[in-house]
Amino acid sequence: MKRITTIIAIGSLLVFSxxxxxxxxxxxxxxxxxxxxxxxxxxxxQASTGGTFRIEDEISVHGIVTMDEGDGNIYKNFFLQDxxxxxxxxxxxxxxxxxGDSVRIYLKGTTLxxxxxxxxxxxxxxxNNIEKLAIQKNIEPEVITIDQITxxxxxxxxxxxxxxxxxxxxxxxxxxxxxxxxxxxxLEDCFGYQVIVRSSGYASFADQPIPSGNGSVxxxxxxxxxxxxxYIRSFSEIAMDGARCAGTIFIKNFxxxxxxxxxxxxxxxxxxxxxxxxxxxxxPTDYGVISNYADFTNYECETWLISPSIDLTPFSSxxxxxxxxxxxxxxxxxxxxxxxxxxxxNPTTQGTWTALTANWSTGGFAWVNSGDIxxxxxxxxxxxxxFKYTGSMSDGSTWELDxxxxxx
Length: 408
Known about the structure:
The chain is mainly beta. It has one helix at 39-49, and strands at 4-5, 35-36, 53-54, 59-67, 77-82, 85-91, 102-106, 111-115, 118-124, 130-134, 142-144, 157-165, 183-189, 194-199, 214-224, 227-232, 238-242, 248-252, 265-270, 276-278, 287-290, 293-294, 297-298, 301-306, 319-327, 334-338, 354-355, 368-369, 373-374, 384-391, 398-407. Strands 2, 3, 4, 5, 6, 7, 8, 9 and 10 form a 9-stranded mixed sheet that branches.
């Protein structure tokens, strides 16, 4: 049902500083020469052992640094990649390790484990555990599509082409630089696949506006409990000045657990039954739900779920698309559109609402896609979408909504 993937940031990645430490050469002590282990072997080792453990073996791992702290998007850590995989490395100090460095990490005394599913090598002393072997040995990023990004690529450097940030975020900033808060932005391709791009409020590009065009971005794959998000290595690796393809003008996916976020309205024409969010049935994220049945009783109601005002004037062929499911006997959910609603009044007495036709679920909580609903006849700077739910004292269906999108 869902195409978008989400994640919460790695804890240690969100603590930043402007301080940079010069790399001390030679290290405080000579780093012992040892045998080597690959990154995939480290992954298998941790998986077989389970949990987090301190490495006491005199062994090393070699790799190329694929992301450093240069643009401030991460702090006190870097990403390391070899021919077998990649890993996040957390260090005792900031600075000293740079993109393209070929390094050997002496593993004795370090800690190997997972942070919410992400493999991490922790407690790495920049001077005593790391030997820099060469510089400017950059790994060429693999070019893949959004739908090919999985947790199997965690911590690897990739390049995505023919992508764009969703239209509602164009002109917004990558993060909140003033309050030093990280933010998520949604990147999409021309087939509707989406992924989160997370940026720190400390990043040098935090206050840069989201580009309006289509193009490419080079980034690092990360995840939190299996949900994907990407880290931009450098603002210079964003190249989005091409013409946009059909993409998301507007989205409401309830992933934030809120019905009324982003300007949506729950309007009770009669009764007091409200829309709410839930993730029952094993759904990975929340969806919108309404039911007039509670405490073995059906309650009479008419409740509207109404979008904020949407400006469709920049687009020639906008379409509405959403997921829906229902169960139990009762009135069908109804879909309406208005170009003169005032945004706050009773929708049955204010504004002209026109019914739209959609593909509706056949019951049994089976999710169905609405199909692309043509909105080209309603292009206006003040478009509202409304879902009307009615229930009686004798019956009432449970309806679920998700991934409400207008694509242009």
